[in-house]
Amino acid sequence: MTSRNFVLPTEGPLEIHPLIRTMPLQPRRAPARIDPKTKSKLIVVVDTEEEFDWSHDHSRDSNCVRSIRWIRRLQDIFDRYGIKPVYVIDYPVVSQADGFKPLKEIYDDGHCLIGAHLHPWVNPPFEEQLNYRNSFPGNLQQRLEASKLEVLTDCIAERFGTRPCIYKAGRYGVGPNTFEILERQGFEVDVSVCPWMDYSAEGGPNFTGTSAWPFWFGEERRLLEIPMTVGFSGYLRKWGGPTLHRVASGSLLRSLHAVGLLCRLGLVDKSWLSPEGYSHTEQVNLVRALHQDGLRIFSFTLHSPSIEPGNTPYVRSKHDLDNFLSSCQKFFDFFLGDLNGDSTTPLQFKAELVSDLPSPTSLKA
User: Fold this and answer.
1) pLDDT digit string (tens) for 213-248?
2) 222 CB contacts (<8 Å, ≥6 apart)?
3) Among 129, 200, 237, 303, which is least packed, fewest CB within 10 Å?
4) Structural domain of residue 237, as residue ranges?
């Protein structure tokens, strides 16, 4: 396996580009072409996982999933808006009754989809050293990454009666072998790519330059990548916004809080479509900016431990929880109301794009 950073470059929001050319196993790919006249679509992806202290090292013993008992706090909101979320679940959740039983009730009622979410440090087989680099599943040897995912999907199939076909790598940790593994194990959609983020300092993937536009990939199957909705808003976003943000984030200007200044002045703001750490205004500005560029599929993401105060940095108190849930509702009001968008699932969205599937000869090596 190469130790080179994993990069998915793009030249602009309307062009979906390949995996880095120096990758030893580069999946075939092609942009997913979406008519900009169509309604905007929203998918909701919940990283459904154990509670652990994000500020500490990873531990194989951190596998408590008691927060899942409060999952109805979210699901009731989704039901109210007619949203069918994808709960991408990891091994501690699916292997313990406290984790999978509340979700199975929702799944059996037809109100959600279940996907796979690989946290390698708590997912057998345990053959790798426990460190930051190996917390990104794409850094593992191909055989071990595949084995861990197979154990996870087998367990999900046993609990829920069907194998998952939607995948999200823990810590967004796709690697040079991930897409081949997904194709071989029968997955249809990946939602791991985190645009404009760089985790290479910890040995993880570097998505700098990657846009939120979906693309097809795979050698034999037609797999769809729906990246997370991360991008830029502000007056200067089209005139070097990413470059300005990167310079402002550098060591020379960090002490001057240049990133915050750009945001407060409305010049450049890098945001995620998430209620975790991002205000309603930032979420709306991001969606409006990307919608103006022509994006029509948006991914709203959050972590299940946030539904119980004290588990994540975003929800520390009852007050935080109320604001967190309110932020979700306010965004859904905006997207399904003001923007006149629709909710969908990754599989429904893929089905709508089937006619767009490129011919084998049109896929670039």
Assistant:
1) 999 998 765 899 999 999 998 756 765 566 555 655
2) 216, 357
3) 129
4) 232-272
